[in-house]
Specification:
By secondary structure, the protein is α+β, with helices and mostly antiparallel strands. Helices cover about 20% and strands about 25% of the residues. It contains three helices and eight strands. The C terminus is likely disordered.
């Protein structure tokens, strides 16, 4: 599969306007927050996306922010996921996001479902 085809496949996966596919939920490594992704952006990179840091009040790049705040060195070449919020759009580097959804066929596997019972809230040992 060529790079262009791969990028289109990935963009389609994260495209929230695709009614045939549920939105992808991710959890971020740095603060364990979950987000329902609305799309994938190649418009910005971790170096070119800048915002005002609430702590310092200064403009900062995403790459610099994650390094200074969390000591995470982000890869330069990666698309950003975005989440639309009422007060604006949030961009997330793909490097720190893990898909929080179970595979489609997971619930059909009885053994996996039995194994999962050990990890219910309040029952893990």
């Amino acid at each position: 599969m060529k790079y262009g085809d791969q990028m289109r496949t990935i963009q389609e996966k994260f495209n929230s306007s695709n009614v045939d596919q549920p939105r992808v939920t991710v959890i971020t490594e740095h603060n364990s927050t979950t987000y329902q992704v609305d799309g994938l952006s190649t418009e910005f990179s971790v170096n070119t996306y800048k915002f005002t840091d609430k702590k310092s009040g200064k403009e900062i790049s995403m790459k610099q922010y994650f390094y200074e705040r969390y000591k995470i060195n982000l890869y330069d070449k990666q698309p950003l996921l975005f989440v639309n919020k009422p007060d604006g759009r949030i961009y997330l580097p793909t490097q720190i996001c893990n898909e929080a959804s179970l595979p489609e066929d997971f619930t059909k596997d009885n053994q996996k479902m039995r194994d999962l019972q050990n990890y219910k809230v309040g029952t893990a040992q």
